[in-house]
Amino acid sequence: MAFGNKNDQEAMSEINVTPLVDVMLVLLVVFIVTAPLLTQSVGVNLPKTVAAAPPPQNPVTMVSIDLAGDIYLDKEKMTAEQLAEQLTTRHTENPELTVQFEVDEKVPYGKAAEVLAIAQHAGITKLSLQTRP
To answer: How many domains in the chain?
Structure first.
């Protein structure tokens, strides 16, 4: 059965391209919106920087992580649990406690994030990260 007009004089030979154009424009908008979301990674090179601010006037507690992943609190080696206890104790004694972190640049990010989370759970809100100029 062929398509035709009311008079059945000849078959319809034209394609209606309007719906096709509408679909293509919608797809184009979808691609335009999603393309920037696909590139989320940013290449960064840490931890070199210039000196930013003068050192704080409050007492400072130094937390360091060496290349082997060992944690030090003011040059005293300890485990993560001991660090949590010490930071909680120091924070209760001095709520204005400032903690400075020194992390070797070869230390995996997960280890540094773990130590930062320990400080956050201890209630410490004043944190700084040491870098080299």
So the answer is: 1
